[in-house]
Amino acid sequence: MSETRTAATKGVWPRIALVTPVYNSGKYIEASIQSVLAQNYPELDYFIVDGGSTDGTQEIIRKYEARISGWMSEPDQGMYDALNKGFARTRGEVMGWISATDMLQPGGLLAVGGIFRDLPEVEWISGRPTWFNEEGEQTGTGEPPRVSRMRFLAGANRYLQQESTYWRRSLWERAGGRVDASRRNAADFELWVRFFRHARLYPADTLVGGFRKHGDSLALRDLEACHRAYDEFIDAELREMRGGRLLRVFRGAARMAEATPGLRQVWSRLVTGPLHGRPGRDWAPVIRNRDDKWRLDDE
Question: Does the pTM exceed 0.85?
Answer without folding.
Answer: yes
